[in-house]
Specification:
Blueprint (H helix, E strand, L loop, with lengths): L10 E8 L5 E8 L5 E2 L5 E3 L8 E2 L3 E3 L6
Length: 68
């Protein structure tokens, strides 16, 4: 996910683990609760529903809207 895609209230999938080969594990659906903050290391993070603290936006994917 890119910083420009982070919108408070956006429905996303959070992957708790991303392995070195790119495999994403332990997905859960949640919502973004804060704007992006940049840590001193340069990592871009935000707060999501159901997790304490901040998570890397690299671990988030937008949940696509379904057509009805």
């Amino acid at each position: 996910m890119q910083k420009s895609e982070v919108i408070i209230g956006q429905l996303v999938t959070y992957f708790a683990v991303i392995k070195e080969d790119g495999t994403k594990l332990n997905p859960c659906t949640t919502r973004i609760l804060s704007e992006v903050t940049e840590l001193p290391s340069g990592e871009e993070v935000c707060q999501i529903e159901g997790k304490r603290g901040l998570v890397s936006i690299k671990h988030l994917e937008i949940v696509p809207l379904t057509e009805n």
